[in-house]
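[audit] Reproducing an earlier prediction to check determinism. Same input, same settings, fresh worker. If the tokens differ from the archived copy the diff job will pick it up downstream; this log only records the rerun itself.
[audit] input (118 residues):
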Amino acid sequence: MPKNVIINFALNLARGKTSLNIYAKFLLLIPAMSFVISCRDSSESKMIRIISGLNQKDYNSRNPFCPEAKVAQCDSLLKLPGRENDFYLLNTKAKLLLETGDENTGCCHLRKDGEGDR
């Protein structure tokens, strides 16, 4: 609504329906245009929206460059009944934790796997 009021006022100024002289018209037009331009989305906010959309799209266990999603999948599979001590899943989870940079937790999982076989 404020944009329409400003635009209508600017159009009335341009048509000469007001009693202001030409210099006053331009002086009023400059702040009005700067207000309209400032209401647009900035390029930074557009880029943030694009990147967050791509991150949501790429967070997939089939993506080879997203080990965090694979760790979440392993966690959900390990919560299934009868799969709590599945060696393959525990070993895969430990390797994925090492890929994500969580070396302490990954090594703890590997130690637990090795102790169970002895």
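[audit] rerun output stored. Observation attached for the diff report: The chain has six helices and no strands.
[audit] end
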